[in-house]
Amino acid sequence: MRWFSCCLMMCVAWCIAGADFGSPKRNAREPEIFTETEIRENMPSAPWYFVPPVTDRNFWKKYGGESAYLQRITRRAYGHLKKMPAAPTPEEYMKFYTDEKKYGRDYHTRLFAPYHSVLFDLLIGYCVSYDTESFLPAIQEMLKTYCEIPWTTPDFDRKQYAVKRAGFPLELVSTSTGAFLSSVAYVLRPVLEPELYRKLQREIDLRIVSSFERLFVKPYYGEGWIRGAGGNWTAVCLGGITVALAAADIDPVRRAKLLTRCANHLDYYISGFNGEGYTSEGFDYWSYGHGYFLLADTLFLQASKGKINLIKRIPGACEATMYPYHILISDRIAPAYADCTIFAKCSPVVLDWCNYLLQDVPAAPVKLAHLNGHLIPVADSSRAEVRLPAVPEYKKAQVWILRPGEAENVRFGVSFKGGYNLEGHNHNDIGSYVVVQGKDGIIAVDPGAEVYNWRTFSKQRYESKLLNSYGHSVPVIDGKLQPESRNAKAAVVEKHLTGSAKDRVVLDLSKAYFVPGIRNLTRAFDYSRKGSGTFCVTDTFEFDVPKKFETAMVYLGKLSGLPGKSLTIEHNGEKMALSIENSGGEVEMFTEEIKENVRSKVKVFRLGIRFRKPVAKGAVRLTFTPMEK
Hints:
Structural class: alpha+beta
Number of strands: 21
Number of helices: 17
Shape: elongated
Strand content: 15-25%
Helix content: 25-40%
């Protein structure tokens, strides 16, 4: 897999990933976990990177000759030499500004990501083969191009700072590109043309190092991530800057000062997990952002020979690193809350890194592995067994994951959430839930993200039925959906979590709707491990005057049994019975497809359960029960 290309495409595709739809908490002063003296005394004074220069043939013969992965890249690199990609030009970059709808973010991705990927392949091919005649001229031509073209995504260069060379905003793509080019310059320093090496170092200094220094004086547009609390932007940008600084040919005192700021400001990223290891940005963004946090931690750990370990020193970092182990409902599926994909999976590479860095004393490296476009010597990838609790609970975020635990006959797990409607990558989804049977039978679903478009991060965001509450398994009150607001929130009114026979959580949802006259609106979640298990979702409501009431269950796959109240839901070979009970009046049921551009590339359906007439008081209960395959 072309890992560097994937990383760059993720950077571009998610380039406004830091939008928190509400102002992030501002931090008045820098954290002081690490001191400049500590960094200067324990980090190398000379430029440093994970792997040595290409001229260290003992290293490259050892690792390159034994790695099938690197051999595949080398063969692919020789293929590139036969047909090199056209170099992006400043003129092509400017097309974004002339017609944004025609030359938008996708255009930028198609233009630049393949170019990055080819340079990565050529670098690895050269290091493994040491075929200077074939590879070095092509690599040097590409590096000359990089010295001329902007590294910044146009979305975050609206004033064309980078184009005019009047300033260089630091964002997801520019920092990742700077890290990569700094590593290329380090690995190829003994063989690059001297003038090209000096020019590349000047560009790295101007666009990354000096720009980072200026952040602490007067931030450019779009760089509030440096003092904002949490979010993948902070981790991605600081991870890239950390690598760029370590490998850059700059003054050692200057490097130590800036690396200290990188290490300390990563505390702001970890603060977004609220001390309990949960991120409202979702599983996809955790993999993306935390991958760069792990990259920075690995650099500090290896360069300092184990003396500087961010995970062990930054409060809450261990809990944040355990997130993929706690958030999974089954072995494969996590709830797709916020802008996440339904089938999001944590990369095995990232899990290996989590396991590697969580060890008390990380094992000695024995092979090269990849992380966010960088090759790093690591220990064997075998993972220590992690014992998962039956009931992971994120109290502050109001997110629960209920698993079978020791109940051998129960084959399904659930997740549900309360929270509020102004979270990172927010969806209006207070009370949403997910039911997963087997490994990947998704019976009830949170639909996750839409394909990003002009509307996604605009004032029209909640016109999308995937992002507003209509596309989630939550009520509609008097024709009104949940609003986007910090004041739209849930409250826990009852909680009984044992991890054994039965777990119960009851949420007060009355403040999740800005509808006058709601006297009572609760949603009870009951998860039983008795027999093959059951899961009940009960909405109980009371209004001052009769109002329209509708609830819903969002699903994938096939639903049968309508118009009756005993239904069957099937998905990926798994089957569950769904029974519906109600009081307070007659209900009608209907199904519809939520017709939005679902990022997960599946059809998402909504089962609506609506009272035929306005009612003042009532209840609706949905009970999920496993069925034989």
